[in-house]
Amino acid sequence: MTIIKLIKQEPYFLILALLAATIPVSTFGMSVSQFFLLFYFLGSGKWNEKWNRLRNNKALPFMLLVYAVHLVGLLYTTYPEGFFGNYYTALDDLRIKLPLLILPVLIAAFPPLTFHQIKWIIYAFSLSLLISSFISTAVYLGLTPIQIDETRDISLFVSHIRVSLFVDIAFFLGLYLVLIKRNYLSKTEKWLIPVILAWFLFFLILLKAFTGIFVFAVIAGLGILLWSLRASSLRRRLLAISLLILLIFSSFGWFAHYVTQYRDFDGYQPEKLDPFTANGRPYSHDFSNLQVENQHWVGLYHNEEELRNEWNRRSKLPYDGPDLRGNNLRQTLQRYLTGLNLRKDSLGVVQLSEDDISMIEQGYANPIYKKRFSLLPRIYEIVWEVDLYLRGANPNGHSVAQRMEYGRLGWLILRENFWFGVGTGDVYLAYRALYDQNESPLRGSNQRRAHNQYLSFLIAFGLVGFSFISIGVLVPIFMFYKHINFMFYIPFAIALLSMINEDTLETQAGVTFVAFFYSLFVFGCKQKSV
Known about the structure:
Blueprint: H1 3-9, H2 11-22, H3 27-43, H4 47-56, H5 60-63, H6 65-72, H7 87-96, H8 99-109, H9 115-140, H10 160-179, H11 187-207, H12 210-230, H13 234-263, E1 292-293, E2 296-297, H14 304-314, H15 329-339, H16 346-350, H17 354-361, H18 376-390, H19 399-416, H20 427-436, H21 453-480, H22 489-498, H23 508-522
Antiparallel strand pairs: 1-2
Helix pairs in contact: 2-3, 2-9, 3-8, 6-21, 8-23, 9-10, 10-11, 10-12, 10-22, 12-13, 12-22, 13-18, 18-19, 19-21
């Protein structure tokens, strides 16, 4: 059935396709699409049919528990004290979470979708994401007038982490269509989808969003495992299991080697360090500086005067000013020189190439960042931040270290509000109270909340509320598991994994994508053939 026939047959399908297409690119478009769906629900009549579908859907009330817990959370707060607490943040939280209430009800009220309709909805989502990825790549390659400071800035429409999760969804849903539903695809689809999947894989690496890459690796591993269990022959099972074991051990082995190599710092004895530069000026050695770049200590072999004079001779950016990312240029320079195992003096700066000078001016603090199309720079950055944080360094300005600090503070809050939490909308206020008590070294601009959805729910609603939310999400799956197609588990597993490292349900893009795919596959197409 062609897309034109599908559109003429059912406007409801067109609205869902529009909603799917807006998820990767526009929070405004998501809202408008959901309003269209609501208006069509109200204006399309057939109330008896809709009511019967909703009444006979025994799983729907469980899903609505998720939003109900948020409503109950309005009745108590901890920060600030007082009946009903802080209305502004609570109502804003309820507004953001509205898709968890609206989409399950509206989608459950309409007739189940066919496989072809589901396929074209996936295509709408993927096509929108594909166009967005082309634009982001053009920005990354400097083919547009848009200037970026970091790779994450190439995602112009929604968070780069969210985009990486969308890439995971599009990739694995497309892979499922090619491998499992191949007989339902045209010749054009059979060769075009693999090409698009290859591009999505490249773009995921380009984004360097660790959350998306981690989720991709886990889903790929689980996919291989499931394939091995369902393989028809023992030979295929053994092949799949061997491949999975090889991937796991090689990945962990490579990562462990990289971490071990990073931790293998230069040893030094203070009394044996050279006291003077080649020009006879004295070095200063800061033994309290915990920073390491490529196994070398940043605090050793430093002469400020020579660094300043030689740098100002080679660059138009002043030594005592900021680099192009707004960071202190002198610190960027010192780290970069250390990464090359050069001393922080005039001779060290002289040995820098013009490419090195440009990298430093752009704010890159290590020569490893020259590898633009490699994951190594991102892995190095993560290892560097974690190591520095564990050794007691300040986490400010480092995303991974800051998340570790958010987690530490979150568990302090949860320990004091274990059973019922602090209430709807009060998670950030609870964090704010700890920040005001000087419980963290984080600066004001970096003082945020958990970045872990499970921890956020536990802080907000305690173990009791979290249990009800879990029941609301899982019971419909168990009730409909005989009818739910495998495609559902792809976005569902991606969402669950993302919540380890993200407040996935605290932004409109995150909550809409979770509510949409959950409702679409659980309530919108209860057909095993889909």
